[in-house]
Amino acid sequence: xxxxxxxxxxxxxxxxxxxxxxxxxxxxxxxxxxxxxxxxxxxxxxxxxxxxxxxxxxxxxxxxxxxxxxxxxxxxxxxxxxxxxxxxxxxxxxxxxxxxxxxxxxxxxxxxxxxxxxxxxxxxxxxxxxxxxxxxxxxxxxxxxxxxxxxxxxxxxxxxxxxxxxxxxxxxxxxxxxxxxxxxxxxxxxxxxxxxxxxxxxxxxxxxxxxxxxxxxxxxxxxxxxxxxxxxxxxxxxxxxxxxxxxxxxxxxxxxxxxxxxxxxxxxxxxxxxxxxxxxxxxxxxxxxxxxxxxxxxxxxxxxxxxxxxxxxxxxxxxxxxxxxxxxx
Length: 329
Prior knowledge:
The chain is of the alpha/beta class. Helix content is 39%, strand content 14%. It has one domain (12-298): Rossmann fold (3-Layer(aba) Sandwich). It contains nine helices and nine strands. The strands form two sheets. The protein has a seven-stranded mixed beta sheet with strand order 3-5-6-4-7-8-9, with helices on both faces. It has a two-stranded antiparallel sheet with strand order 1-2. Helix 3 (52-60) packs across helix 7 (245-261). It holds the Pfam family MMR_HSR1. This is P-loop containing nucleoside triphosphate hydrolase protein.
């Protein structure tokens, strides 16, 4: 059913202006193909029903364009006494850059479960790395730029503290970038090599999709590659603050339909999670989802420590009962 009478839709010029105002998006970082994809997506989502329940859930998460932008003071913005300040966002503000590489993927002291972030250039991967760590998007360890194609290595970030929970892997983006073709080919090679299925620590790949343009052809290719390799994957809808809540709900419905059309098998639950790394809306829900998933992996320090704690408690309880039995004799 058409919802034009219920939702005041924006045109492409309005959306482009918001990208430049809210994200400082550079003109050379947006191709005509991207602009056309945004225009077609805006037109297409009008034909999807607006689900009131989904809209309400998005509003509760702080997602969807608002008259007054969300206050993102929940992020860590500074250090106190040379120590990171704990926050209630994501992993609490604790992250360590372990290193970056273009091949021969490194091994680290803690063999933690790895969650990879993949997606189109300028879809918000590095911003989301910082947000998941609980660090202000522009002051975190992952470099963020308005320039498409800023991430030019595979970067590894240890997230969480005492014990660290998982390693986030920031992959180079695919698609349009301010870089020559040979460099773009090299980025695609890095992503393909890392997602070859040989990295034992990799437990999930999050495919980031820009909510303002929907599923791109490169996203479909990546999803097919992940399925062939048997890599668990989840779709994360980014830039959740640039569309109205009703439009964001319709964008989710459109992407869900696209996934059904291509027969994608997203084993992660829920299969699609909307977020905004810029404001932090929806980020804690995504972090808890990642954290819960990583706890099931053999390399999880959190699970190992928890298991050791349970063993100690069981032994103490056994000793207590034994002592109690001795006293009653």
